Amino acid sequence: MWKEIAAKISETTGQPFEITTHRSVGGGCINQSYSVSDGTLSYFVKINQANQIDMFEAEYLGLQQMYDTQTIRIPQPLCCSIAGDSSFIVMEWLEFGRGDSRAWELMGQNLAKLHQAKGSDRFGWNRNNTIGSTPQINPWSDNWSDFFAEQRIGFQLRLAKRRGGNFPDTGKVVARVKDILSDRNPQPSLVHGDLWSGNAACTVAGEPVILDPATYWGDREVDLAMTELFGGFPAAFYRGYNQTWQLDRDYETRKPLYNLYHVLNHFNLFGGGYESQARSTIDRLLP
Ligand code: ADP
Fold it and tell me: What is the pTM of this model?
């Protein structure tokens, strides 16, 4: 497998590359991660079963689209392919360190610049991708409330019911979500889509980076909401974001609704207490 990965790296860069060391990297949720090196150059490689190639192709495209905006540091993707029973993605190796408050402020500023980047006048994406290991469905839509209600909440709610979750009628919840978002017409922003603290880091040089995205064109507020779901990012991050692109005053009212998507997804992935957390948000939403 390592020979095939090295060959693909060489083919992509046009430079000879031989893997002389590969070292396992911890911290991921879905894949096995490695640093590979020829003694001079290093790359970051994620590996899964061959049938997960779609997931890596979507990650590659998401990283590439975000990279192309030149707004926030992203590990530059190099290639993805299949080697025997495995699929893999290769990207730029980044050395992470501890971010200070200046780095977090810059993270906020740069995320706002990513959100400001133009590129689509519709919501959705070029292809489906995954959120954790759950499919994330991205058909193009002109209407944010329809898109979020159907493709985000409705989709997860149907999965949650199949998993045995006790939730109200999907049609009723979807209709209510459409209603709540009916006057929300955001500019489509290229969102990271899975912005919890494990997917935000700073290089040793203090440069903020976002990684492992579940990209699509959506309401910028979904990224901000997710940063707050598990305790929040440092205050400097929100200061930086608001300096560059002030959040709307009624963002707070939509935050629990946007995070309901991730809470339902956590129930679908992990079960347990996420059912009651999702349930109480839904109960508050329904009249
Ligand atoms: P998974 O897809 O399994 O969730 P991640 O993309 O989150 O994996 O990566 C796992 C860990 O590897 C991250 O938490 C981070 O510490 C490290 N990592 C991710 N990308 C890079 C990179 N480009 N360079 C160096 N380390 C990385």
Answer: 0.95
